[in-house]
Amino acid sequence: MKKLTTKIQLILFTALLAGFTSCSDDDDAGMITEESETIADFVASEEEYSSLAEALDRTGLTATLDAEGTYTVFAPNNAAFEAYLGGTAVADVPVEDLTQILLNHVLAVEARASSLATGYVNNLATYADTDANLSMYINVDSDVVTINGGSELEGGANVTATDFEFSNGIVHTVDAVIALPTVATFAVADPTFTQLETALTADASFSFVNTLTSAGTFTVFAPTNDAFADLLAELEISGFGDLDTSVLAAALSLHVVNGANVRAEDLTTGTVTTLGGAIEVDASNATLTDANGRVSTIVVTDVQASNGVVHAIDTVLLPGL
Fold it and tell me: What is the pTM of this model?
């Protein structure tokens, strides 16, 4: 699971193009939009986005992106749809699934390139039958903007051109369809969890990644890199290879609740059963306590995936020692 290292260029056009920028010389260069043109007008008028137009029509979202509003759309072209669908026609994708995939590319705010920053934003896709919006991890590294790990990670995308302005929002083009993220997506895409990713794949026998990409429902309390660094220092070891595999597996299992999507507002004080045993939750103080009395604080909440939710914590929980 390698991180994206591909560089892209940002080229500033003249004022005649109303400040549009492009990340390559040949990606959508030279497009001029009328002030009254909507995002839906743009998609419908460009042959390169005919698959997107068909998908919007089929789901009824053309009307949404033709109405007044403040949207940001990360728009995949025909090649991106073809690669994502693998030969399946847009017309054969279930409407409910297609709707969520499209909404996964739309923010409810206008976000120009200059305002994009590394971190999580919510898009308009929702978790299951709730109104909880899915999260999107944006990484900005100099002029390189990636979404959910970039197109080198399955389900991620690179931003290829930015700041096409329309009467109801902004369009940035992307080189891949952005898949609905799983819990594992964020463990891989977000560098805050590099050590967690390493731990999850530390032994060939581990099936954590397969589990957390499955269609189940999970709540994951994800230790940050600093949390793992503190653990290694506490145990006086240099890496996960110095830790007994069964102990590491048991520790990781303590951070996963199966069968529940527990968002911050739903946390309650008391005992919670994880895949690795019981932990104690103090909802008032946003802390977790393991069998050893180790206390971990929840530092980031409600990173919502399609198969569960992630909360970042500052201390690794351990099984009874």
Answer: 0.88
